[in-house]
Design goal:
The chain has a four-stranded antiparallel β-sheet, with no helix packed on it. Strands 7-6-4-9 form a four-stranded antiparallel β-sheet, with no helix packed on it. It folds into two domains: 31 residues, no CATH class; 84 residues, RNA polymerase II/Efflux pump adaptor protein, barrel-sandwich hybrid domain (OB fold (Dihydrolipoamide Acetyltransferase, E2P)), CATH 2.40.50.100. It contains two helices and ten strands, in the order αββαββββββββ. The protein is mainly beta and 164 residues long. The termini are far apart.
């Protein structure tokens, strides 16, 4: 009884499509045994994933009797927004704004600092990646428009620079 390879494949296909878990055929001292792999049964307690908690803190709490509603910090004044000589450094992505490379380090730039086009001005963290932003313009930092740790949007102005 020598089975050909195509006959063995056909047996495997038929057993796979049936409810048979094991199959054995023995004839003339030759034996063919086929067993289906049984699915692994995992017992234990199923827990739901922890709820998502955003890592930023809001700047103002609205409708709270203990906290007065405040204006967002570092907003652009009418004078600054009408000055067409100022260059805006904007966020290239959605993420978290950081002034420095670590919490205990000095900020990359502050108001009044002179920068060149290759100066790193901040970090925007997106998806656990720290992205250093370069100024891309030479000049003087006039205003820092966002707070350290603040969530920023794509295209949001971060700094106002007076080009030199």
């Amino acid at each position: 009884m020598t089975l050909k390879m195509h006959e063995i494949r056909e047996l495997i296909r038929l057993i796979d499509e049936s409810s048979i878990d094991e199959f054995e055929l023995e004839k003339d001292g030759e034996k063919v045994a086929i067993k289906k792999a049984k699915p692994e049964v995992i017992t234990g307690q199923v827990t739901a994933p922890a709820p998502f908690v955003p890592s930023f803190t809001p700047q103002a709490v609205v409708n709270s009797p203990a906290v007065e509603e405040t204006q967002p910090v570092n907003t652009v004044t009418a004078e600054e927004s009408t000055d067409t000589n100022l260059h805006k450094i904007v966020s290239p992505m959605v993420g978290t704004f950081y002034h420095a490379s670590s919490p205990d380090a000095d900020p990359y730039v502050s108001e009044g600092d002179t920068i060149n086009s290759k100066s790193v001005v901040c970090i925007v963290e997106a998806m656990k990646l720290m992205n250093e932003l370069e100024a891309e313009v030479s000049g003087t930092i006039v205003k820092v428009l966002v707070e350290n740790g603040q969530l920023v949007e794509y295209g949001q102005p971060l700094f106002l620079v007076k080009p030199s």
